[in-house]
Each structure stands twice: as C-alpha cells, then as structure tokens.
Design goal:
By secondary structure, this protein is of the alpha+beta class. Helices cover 44% and strands 12% of the residues. A hairpin with a 4-residue loop joins strand 6 (239-240) and strand 7 (245-246).
C-alpha cells in the first residue's frame, strides 16, 4: 500500500530515493494522485484507472517540472479521458475549425483568460488555420513557432500545439503526431522575487489598498496558502468555521478572523462583476506590488514563497499549527492587517 501524506513542495523535495526499484506515495488531498520515486531520484505523478477490465497506470508528469496543484487539477480530466472509448474518425477538417472543437472540449478557463488565449492563437497560429489538420507537418509547425518573437510566448505556443495535436490524435483526426520528437524550446526559469523583507513591505502595501473586497482577497493570498485561482473562487459553502476548514484544507487563525469579518452575502467570498467571483485583479495587484517595491511580483509568487517557508506536515492539525506559527513569525511586527 502506498504511503499517504499531503503532497507539498517541502516533503516532495526531500523524499529519499529507494536503493533499488521504485517507491509509491499517495496524496491525502486527492488520493487518486500518486507518485513514483525511482532509485535514480526521478519523481513522477500518475493515476491508476481500470480500463476495459485492466489496471492502467497513466503518467501525468514529472515533479518539479509540474506543480502539485497542476497535477491535482489534471487528475479528473485524465480519468475521464481514460474511461472514454477511443473514437476512430478519419475525416478532414481545417485547423481553425478543429481549434474550436478543442477549445470547447478541453479548455477550462475564465472569460478573461480564454479571450487572452484566443488573441494569442489568432496572432501567432494564423498560418495553420486553412490547412487540414491531418495534413499539417512538423515543418509547418516548426515554421510557425520560429516566426514567433520571444522565447516565452514561443514556448507556450509550442506547448499549446502539443496539447492540440494530442487531442487530434485521441479523436482520430490525425494518424501521427506532427510534433513527435520535436525539440522543446528551453525557457529560463523566472527567479521569484519575494523575500522576508519584501514580504513585510507587501503586507503594508496591501493594507493601503482602498477597495475592501480586494484588500481582503489579497490578504487571503497570504493567509489561505493556495494559488490565486483557488482563493478568488472561494465559496461560503466550502468553509467550515466549526472545524477551521476550507474544503479539506486547514484554515489559519488569521484567515478565520478575516473571513468572519466579511459580509456573507451571495455565493462567493470575494464577489466580482456579473454575479461571478473576482478573477484577475491585475491592475490593483500591480499597484500593490509597485508600492511594495517589487513591481514584477505575481500573485502566485506569494503562495510559492510561503510554501517554501512552511514546515509541511501530513496531519491536518499539525499543519494548521505550523501555518499559524509561520504567519506569526512573518508578521511579528504587523498587528493591524485590515
């Protein structure tokens, strides 16, 4: 039986490799998510699924190239695809129309994020629109990628096309993946700019944010120990103040105090426009980050910084205690958060 604990960067970074063969560990947050650790130290996320009477192990990706939250998010879609019967269709369809099928079937994004992706597709992949998907070659893809200025966007478009043609292969629109064996564009990893001194400046800058809803949301990025997409999509029905829980996550004392002071009206803890939750308050965050003297700081940098500072623990109560201790240490000189 696999050893179970909450997957987190601290524990996964320090998992010992077995002397021979491989070990398997299991995520307590989503028990469907597991990980191989080989004797060479390679760590690979995977899920198990019984497909057509046979036990199948499906690889998700290697850690740390894939974040833990990304691996958790991928589990439901992978299991859903594994349960589907393969479709064998061989009809011609132009790339532009096929992209609409892909976007509707596979892309799960907020409205703003989806529009941003669609603009990037029109700008950078237009050279493939009129070609039949089944007739697109590796040279066609390489030509489009090489015409994109900027390593970062070229790398993201390459990853996007890889996913699109994976889908085309699964659905039977192509017989062979045109990007098979294509060298991946190397991207320099971004250095995350937050330090302990910068963290204190960030807390002071958030305190100056004039919009109370955004101010509370930005503080919850600190108190909630989760990515911004999780924090901003928080629902009142997912909170259990009797047991200090948010879904299956322990809530810090500071998070509870903050949340209990907010008006509990509607579905969302941090409501936005049109009856939906806030999604990407980049203008307000840019103002906060600039005031903190860290203009290139992203909202998810906060989670990354805290996740590396935290002493993670498999027991929920121990983890909650460690979260409280870390926040008390980091904010020792800051008594008035809101």
């Amino acid at each position: 039986m696999a050893h179970q604990f909450y997957f987190n960067p601290y524990i996964l970074d320090n998992l010992p490799a077995p002397r021979v063969g491989f070990d398997v560990v299991q995520d307590l947050s989503d028990p469907r998510l597991r990980m191989y650790i080989t004797s060479r130290g390679v760590k690979t996320f995977f899920v198990r699924k019984r497909v057509h009477g046979k036990d199948k192990r499906i690889i998700i990706g290697n850690y740390p190239d894939m974040d833990i939250e990304d691996a958790r998010s991928a589990v439901p879609q992978i299991l859903e695809r594994a349960a589907q019967k393969p479709i064998t269709r061989r009809r011609k369809i132009v790339f532009e129309k096929f992209l609409q099928i892909y976007m509707n079937g596979r892309v799960r994004r907020g409205e703003d994020s989806r529009m941003k992706l669609e603009r990037a597709i029109k700008r950078h992949l237009g050279g493939l629109f009129e070609k039949n998907v089944s007739e697109i070659t590796a040279d066609d893809v390489r030509s489009v990628i090489e015409s994109i200025s900027g390593v970062a966007i070229a790398g993201r478009m390459q990853e996007f096309l890889q996913s699109v043609f994976n889908f085309a292969l699964e659905q039977g629109y192509v017989k062979k993946h045109p990007m098979q064996g294509m060298q991946k564009i190397e991207q320099k990893r971004r250095v995350r700019p937050l330090t302990r001194a910068g963290f204190k400046r960030l807390v002071n800058a958030i305190r100056q944010e004039p919009v109370q809803n955004l101010r509370a949301a930005f503080f919850m990025l600190i108190y909630g120990f989760a990515h911004k997409s999780k924090v901003f999509a928080m629902k009142w029905e997912d909170l259990d103040f009797n047991h200090d829980l948010w879904e299956n996550r322990p809530l810090s004392d500071r998070a509870i105090v903050l949340l209990e002071d907010l008006p509990q009206a509607g579905e969302w803890v941090f409501p936005g426009r049109g009856g939906f939750h806030i999604t990407d308050p980049r203008v307000a965050w840019k103002r906060v980050a600039t005031n903190a003297g860290i203009p290139n700081l992203t909202m998810d940098d906060v989670y990354k910084f805290l996740a590396r500072q935290l002493v993670w623990a498999p027991d929920r109560e121990d983890l909650r205690m460690n979260i409280n201790d870390l926040l008390d240490e980091l904010m020792a000189d800051d008594d008035n958060e809101l």
